[in-house]
Amino acid sequence: MQAVKAFERYIAHLSEGLGHVDRHASLKGYCTGLMMPLARKSVEPMAASLEPLRVSARHQALHHFVARSEWSDGTVLKRVRDWVTPLLGLQDGCYWIVDDTGLPKKGKHSVGVARQYCGQLGKQDNCQVAVSLSLASTRGSVPIAYQLYLPQEWADDPVRRQTAGVPETLAFATKPAIALGQMRSALAQGVRPGVVLADAGYGDETAFREGITAMGLLYAVGIRPATTVWAPGTAPLPPKAWAGHGRPPTKLRRGPGHKPVSARALAMSLAPQAWQTVTWREGTNAELCGRFAALRVRAAHRGLGSEMRAEEWLLIEWPEGDKEPVKYFFSTAPEYASLEQLVFVAKMRWRIERDYQDLKQDFGLSHYEGRGWRGFHHHATLSIAAYGFLMAQRLQMGASGEEEIKKNFAQRQVPAVPEGFVPRGSPSRPAPCGGLDLDAARSAEH
């Protein structure tokens, strides 16, 4: 009963960001459907579970709310953030986790679908990819921004853009550029600054790291083994001597004995005593630990300018028994940071994996069957809203709060779904509505 009352208060809080009062019932219904134990959380199965005797009317209302209604995703996500943030304990450590997630799609008309790398599948395939920013602490995390990556082929196709309702002002942007925009927006909204965490797909981009530093934020980001650095005690040659005419040379130079090395080569050259075993947190069944080394370097992989880049930490993970290191990180943590602190911060990125696992498996993030820009983002916002309520209950009540939620929302699946009902998108019945994608992804794994 306590969870039900908390949910009512939460929905009332979110409803204040919707504008029209007539949207409130659909918000409550959609979030309720996302929290029910349904195999598929697209519009029609949720409508059938919420009102089995009025499926068509409920379906129409929910579909309009998610696919056409002009409420602001940013406003609703801000209200989710305002509800969860006070419970996270960010004063004891705040992290901004950048990541993207792939949503497999076999159709070609859903907005943003293209053949691209899909992390869920671990290969190139047809999918949508969305970039997110999560606010995290040691206690929990919640996404605060979520945007579809629009591949170049979509960005340059006015017909497909118009059909899918892509905003006219939206230009092509890389995933790191989208993430930087999300961070600038968060700062502008007064979100507590945090240490930025990201994998090598972002961290290897010089412009991404420089953009973070320009915002006054610290980072601990993955890089690839081939990324080059100036090892301790090495540096480029100074600019050539001025010949007395023309502009004086300003660019630093490489030469024999003055060349950068790859992160991998530097790691392989370290003495055995450089490696230490560090435990970073308690896992499900045992402590999580590994071998690490850290040293001060300067990034060098994007050419030479007139100034050396500032020193930063290179953190390397080399598990016992492996032939070579498995992970590399750049970190702008203070020079006095300990190895244990560097490892702890870099490993905090695990929280985004938990976010996406819950969002896809329990809150239907990958179940949306529409094709348009607005519906894609509205559905994601509502999935995050439902997840935000669960996170708040976890933080307030622990495991008992989560169990109460599951129990209460499982009981709401009464009366039963009509006998013979087949969810839209099921292979046993094609979807008759042209606004829905017949080939929506069915997997719920990240």
Describe the structure.
The protein is an alpha+beta fold and 446 residues long. It folds into 2 domains: 2-199 and 353-411, no CATH class; 201-234 and 260-348, no CATH class. The protein has 15 helices and 12 strands. Strands 1, 2, 3, 4, 5, 6, 7, 8, 9, 10, 11 and 12 form a 12-stranded mixed beta sheet that branches.
How would you summarize the topology of this molecule?
Layout: H1 2-15, H2 24-35, H3 43-50, H4 55-67, H5 73-84, E1 95-104, E2 114-118, E3 123-136, E4 141-148, H6 152-155, H7 158-164, H8 175-188, E5 195-198, H9 200-203, H10 206-214, E6 219-223, E7 228-230, E8 261-262, H11 263-269, E9 276-282, E10 287-299, E11 312-317, E12 327-331, H12 339-347, H13 350-361, H14 373-397, H15 399-411
Parallel strand pairs: 1-5, 5-6
Antiparallel strand pairs: 1-3, 2-3, 3-4, 6-12, 7-8, 7-10, 9-10, 10-11, 11-12
Helix pairs in contact: 1-5, 2-3, 2-14, 3-4, 5-14, 8-10, 14-15
Note the main attributes of this structure.
disordered C terminus, 37% helix, 12 strands, 446 residues, twelve-stranded mixed beta sheet, 18% strand, alpha+beta, 2 domains
What is this structure, in a nutshell?
With 446 residues, the protein is of the alpha+beta class. It has helices at residues 2-15, 24-35, 43-50, 55-67, 73-84, 152-155, 158-164, 175-188, 200-203, 206-214, 263-269, 339-347, 350-361, 373-397, 399-411, and strands spanning 95-104, 114-118, 123-136, 141-148, 195-198, 219-223, 228-230, 261-262, 276-282, 287-299, 312-317, 327-331.
